[in-house]
Amino acid sequence: MQEIKAKIDAASSLSELEAVRLELFGKKGIITALFSELKSAAPEQKKELAVSANEKRDYFSELIAAKKASLEAAEQKEAMKNEASDVTLFNENVNCGALHPVMETMDKIIDYFIAQNFSVESGPLIEDDFHNFEALNLPKYHPARDMQDTFYLNDGRLLRTHTSGVQIRTMEKFKAPPVRMIAPGAVFRRDMDLTHTPMFHQVEGLVVEQGDRVSFA
C-alpha cells in the first residue's frame, strides 16, 4: 500500500492520478478486490476484513481527493498565468491627440474673432422662455415655439434652440455699448433625419456700437 501512496504523491497531472484511482477502485482494482474477498471469507473473518477494507478505501479516497484538489488548483493557476494580459504593454505615454472636427472648427472660428477683439461669451444650455424667445421678439404665437421644434421641460424651461439667448445675457451684463462678442455652443431642436441632428453647434456674433462706428465693410 505504501507503493500506491507513493504513486498518488508522485502524480503530476490529473490523468496520472486517475490511473492510480483506477488501480485502486476500478473493476480489477486493489480495493475492489478486497471487498470481493468478503464473499468467500469465513464468517468469523468477515467483520475484520470489512473494517480493514473500509479503512483502506476511506484512506486512499481522502488521499486522492486531496491530491486532485491540489492538481486542479495548480492547473488553474497555470492556465491563468498563460492567459494573463500584461497591461503594462499598453501603458505607452501618449503626448499628442486629435480634436473632434467640430471642436477643431469651433476653435478656428473663435481664434479668428478673438483676433478681431471680440469676447467669447457663454450661457446656460437650459434656458428660460424670456431669454430664448421673448427678449428676441419671438412672441407666444411664433411658430419657432412649437412643441415639435423645441425640447420643453416640465417646469417651463427648455433646452436652448439657439445661442441667441447669450446675446441678451451679454447686453444685460454690459448695459451699454460697445459690445463685440461671439456665442459658440451646443443647441437643441426636435429635428432628426438624414441631414439634421437633435443637438448641433452654432457660433453667432453681436456688435453694438454708437453712431456709425460699425459697418459690414
SSE class:
alpha+beta
Strand sequence of the main sheet, in spatial order? 1-4-5
Report, as a whole number of angstroms, the end-to-end distance: 108 Å
Major β-sheet, in short?
Answer: 3 strands, mixed
Radius of gyration: 42 Å
- Name the CATH architecture of the largest domain: 2-Layer Sandwich
* CATH topology tier name of the largest domain: BirA Bifunctional Protein, domain 2
Can you describe this structure?
α2 (14-25) runs antiparallel to α4 (43-83) and α3 (30-40) packs antiparallel against α4 (43-83). The protein is α+β, with helices and mostly antiparallel strands. The protein is rod-shaped, with a radius of gyration of 42 Å. 47% of the residues lie in helices and 12% in strands. The chain has a three-stranded mixed beta sheet with strand order 1-4-5. Strands 2-3 form a two-stranded antiparallel ribbon. The mean pLDDT is 87. It starts with a helix and ends in a 9-residue tail after the last strand. It folds into two domains: 2-90; 101-208, 2-Layer Sandwich (BirA Bifunctional Protein, domain 2).
Write a brief structural summary.
The protein has 217 residues and is of the alpha+beta class. The protein has two domains: 2-90; 101-208, BirA Bifunctional Protein, domain 2.
